[in-house]
Amino acid sequence: MVASIVVMESGEMKKSEYKRFKVKCDPLGDDFLAMQEVLARRLARGAAGEKKWTLPDLLLVDGGKSHLKLAWIVKGNTGHW
Asked: Which of 71, 31, 80 lies closest to 53 in space, CA to CA?
């Protein structure tokens, strides 16, 4: 399974900053577990100060209320923002 992250800057798509993640935790297609892994990896890299991985000002989640809740929990667990 692969997950993607897109980046916008000043309202414009910034294709050079798009990221793809190979999901490692779940071979069965659990989108909640995959989203948890990818968000945690993405936020950890940004928090570590990696230049190409700055923390976003806004995070949009594609999904329902359960996906949003999961993103909120991951954000809180990483201790950033």
From this structure: 80
